[in-house]
Amino acid sequence: MTIESLVRRLSAPVIVFLLTLASTVATVHAAENPRKMTVVSFGLFGDQGVFRREAAGAAQIVANRFGGEPVVVKSNTTTGGSATVEMLATTLQAEAKKMNGESDILFLILTSHGSRDGLAVVAGRLAETLKPSHLSEMLGRTGVRNKVVIISACYSGVFIPRLADADTLVITAADANHPSFGCEDKAKWTYFGDAFFNAALRRANNLKDAFLMARSLVLRRELREGFEPSHPQMAGGGKVEPLLVAHPLGIPGVVEK
Prior knowledge:
Blueprint: H1 3-32, E1 37-43, H2 49-66, E2 71-77, E3 80-81, H3 85-96, E4 105-111, E5 114-115, E6 118-123, E7 126-130, H4 132-142, E8 146-152, H5 160-163, E9 168-172, H6 191-203, H7 207-224, E10 233-236
Parallel strand pairs: 1-2, 1-4, 4-8, 8-9
Antiparallel strand pairs: 2-3, 5-6, 6-7, 9-10
Helix pairs in contact: 2-6, 3-4, 6-7
């Protein structure tokens, strides 16, 4: 046997071994450095319990579907609460420090009444407005690249121009010129929250399909009840949406802190 033939015989097993070794190393590296998703959910309008319940329920479903951990839920009541503009900024900064800003995903859920100026924040006697410019600055300061922002409120489309880009997916319950519906005090969900989180996100495998399903559900309900359509919106997120692949729903595990 010549040296050349021996080399040829050995080369194939060696190549297979090296490829197997590289694959194993990559798998171990991925396991040691998994992509993490942090969920922050705020129910901002304390005078109606629907926003508190929607913030908690939405966070639970998102965390179960996409493996989000940690999950931070804060909400307000008629007597007070910690879901303020200042606390939102503080919470986003605190959670961002625990994340890999280049690879991890920040998933923010906000639910409240809205206007063309922004979101109403009411906690007991405290009343303020979370404006699109405020939220844009908060998210920018986190240093987290991959972001998903879902806003369930009237006129919530006003946030899209300030937030949506390739790295930030924004989904809103309405466009910038229409109200959304379903904010009764004793309800568990708003119309959009019920359609998107409670129905579509339990069945769809990704956010885009969930949004399309929810938009259809909301439109049918609004027309059936004689309301002018709210026109839910989805914008940006071209680099983020493909990163979120849904898992089967598991056991709820949201901790309010």
